[in-house]
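Methods — Computational structure assignment.
A single polypeptide chain was analysed. Its primary sequence is given first, followed by the predicted tertiary structure written as structure tokens.
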Amino acid sequence: MNWYRTSALDSVRFIVGESVLPYYNAAMKIARAGGITILRDKELFAAALSGRQVIGAAWESWQGNDYSFDVAVDKAWQNRGVGGKLSDLCIREFDEIKEAYGEEARMHIHVVNPIMEHVLQNRGFTKDPTMNGIFYARQ
């Protein structure tokens, strides 16, 4: 008999781009429930769905050469890789745009959650001593 280990993410669908717009209100509800303030300069970039239910989302912003993103995950789905996958989608978006625009592009993330701090450290981000608060930078 063969046993297969399945990931919690096997049942999660990730969508990116304009397809996420119908999920905006549900995504904002998750952010508010998690105490995450999404600033007005951020646009919904990606959503994670389990069936038809939004279980996480990512917002992004470009201000000049600076890129930033926020991730929120429903409490019931935290610590299952959803936030990491949403972060990876944002990082990939930055990498693609940086390739087109050059070395001037920078990424700064204000971290309010120790889980996200760990996610970013595992992806090569470091604290930026020039920024107020807990920021991570990647160039």
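Note: Residues 10-105 form a domain with the Aminopeptidase fold (CATH 3.40.630.30).
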